[in-house]
TrEMBL record:
An example Gene Ontology CC term for this record: cytoplasm
Keywords: Leucine-rich repeat, Repeat
Keyword Repeat: yes
Natural source organism: Bambusicola thoracicus (Chinese bamboo-partridge)
Domain Disease resistance R13L4/SHOC-2-like LRR: 146-250, 254-343
SMART domains per record: LRR_BAC, LRR_SD22, LRR_TYP
Protein name per the record: Disease resistance R13L4/SHOC-2-like LRR domain-containing protein
Key word Repeat present: yes
Span list, region Disordered: 1-27
Taxonomy, superkingdom: Eukaryota
SUPFAM superfamilies per UniProt: L domain-like
Pfam families linked: LRR_14, LRR_8
């Protein structure tokens, strides 16, 4: 009512307020108050076209309640506010992020996925406490060099953007444990990736990679590597030395043979379907003692070597849509096998004892 009276009385700010409100929905003061106490502010899915200035200045400006209420209860001590550590701006209509993001130096998590961002502010490099940055599902064409200053960053999610290259100095992000650059337009990987020795999960799927740098083998902590849907014709032999690798996805590439992985003693899953693999060698299999999933569907494999029985932990074997006419009798010795896919092969007979 008071606002309406002011508008009728010709309050000079009334028209300005309306215009600002139409441009971008306001952030309720109650949310801001709660964020001062918790250090977390979730503004996901609010139709924001830009981030209101008072969000960037949440730790700097004196709160409104300080002017209104002079008899504080214990719960309303605004001067005991917590610095903002987590800011979620996902699923809005943001086209850019202000350089004012630097006014939130305590941020450990910044989530702006699912917006319309075409670039990132260089000021992100000043958020030295940042541990997780999610800028996936935007329209980013490049990454600012300043981002490489984030020495504490553990998770960087860049999937579903329009990146055609990554900065050469990418290896400076030495604390990274998870990196997702899937569904971009990358044609190569910087050799400095070798410095990411703490990386546990690397997703390179759905890009335009023709090869992987041999240096990738220096990632001694890597447990999961996803190279699905690229243009790989070979895998560097150095990959064989990655002792921590547990899951390797090579589906939908142009591989003609399976890589030999003698040191990958912990490898549990190997997915290499939809390639052009013709021969399955004993050498490909004999070291993979921990393998529980072997997926080779939609290739051109003609035979399965007897050494398949060395994979005593195998639970799922998918050989569908190949050119296999007979199976080794020893396949029946795989005691853990729960799933066997053979459809789409010119098999003449399957022995009854094998089925049992």
């Amino acid at each position: 009512m008071a606002a309406a009276r002011r508008a009728r009385a010709g309050d000079p700010r009334a028209g300005f307020r309306r215009a600002a409100d139409e441009q971008s929905p306001a952030v309720p003061q109650g949310l801001i108050r709660a964020a001062r106490k918790s250090g977390q502010l979730n503004l996901a899915g609010r139709g924001l076209g830009e981030v209101p200035q008072h969000v960037w200045r949440i730790n700097l400006d004196t709160p409104e309640e300080a002017h209104q209420n002079l008899s504080f209860g214990a719960a309303d001590r605004w001067w005991e506010q917590t610095d903002l550590t987590k800011l979620i701006l996902a699923s809005n209509q943001l086209r850019c992020l202000s350089e004012d993001v630097r006014l939130l130096p305590a941020l450990t998590v910044l989530d702006v996925h699912d917006n319309q961002l075409t670039s990132l502010p260089s000021a992100l490099g000043q958020l030295e406490n940042l541990q997780k940055l999610d800028v996936s599902h935007n329209k980013l064409k490049s990454i600012p060099e300043e981002l490489l200053q984030l020495s504490h960053l553990k998770g960087l999610l860049l999937q579903h953007n329009e990146l055609s290259h990554l900065p050469d100095g990418f290896g400076q992000l030495v604390s990274l444990e998870e990196l997702d650059v899937s569904n971009n337009h990358l044609t190569d990987i910087p050799t400095s990736f070798a410095l990411l020795v703490n990386l546990v999960r690397l997703n390179l799927a759905c890009n335009q990679l023709k090869d992987l740098p041999a240096d990738i083998s220096a990632m001694k902590s890597l447990r999961q590597l996803d190279c699905t849907k690229n243009y790989l014709e070979t895998v560097p032999s150095e990959l064989a030395s990655m002792a921590s690798l547990e899951q390797l996805y090579l589906r939908k590439n142009k591989l003609r043979s399976l890589p030999e992985l003698p040191s990958c003693k912990l490898l549990k899953e190997l997915h290499a379907g939809e390639n052009q693999i013709e021969i399955l060698n004993a050498e490909n299999l004999k070291h993979l003692n921990s393998l529980s999933v072997l997926e080779l569907r939609d290739n051109k494999i003609k035979s399965v070597p007897d050494e398949i029985t060395l994979l005593q932990k195998l639970e799922r074997l998918d050989l569908a849509n190949n050119d296999i006419s007979r199976l080794p009798y020893t396949l029946g010795n795989l005691s853990q096998l729960k799933f066997l896919a053979l459809e789409g092969n010119p098999l003449r007979t399957i022995r009854r004892d094998l089925l049992q």
